[in-house]
Amino acid sequence: MTTTYQQMIFINLPVNDLDASKKFFTELGYTLNPQFSDENAASVVISDTIVAMLLTKPFYATFTGKEIADATKTSEVLLCLSAESREKVDELVEKAVAAGGTASDKVQEMDFMYGRAFDDLDGHTWEVVWMDPAAVQG
Prior knowledge:
By secondary structure, the chain is α+β, with helices and mostly antiparallel strands.
């Protein structure tokens, strides 16, 4: 039996305080992969195919010649995670706020979709969206 290749995404994010960011993401229920974590980086396992790499700013700078954006002042990316229900959307946003994040006042509500967003400790915006499976299937 052959297995189907599952493409992964590794989201690399610069952070101001690596220990605080690790605590934030573990409080959301995600785990750290110690094999790819050290004093410069933390590997946050979001799912089998999504990993957030939290990098200290000096370490992040070694991967790019560009200026590092201050995500509290400018938007560099919107990250969006799916959720299995409307309740799970609210649950994750509430966990983020309890862990020190900031919830967006904007709620996306349509017949087939529900979404909210939060900013993590460094200002990176994470959207959380539930979509009705019947609407997705067409």
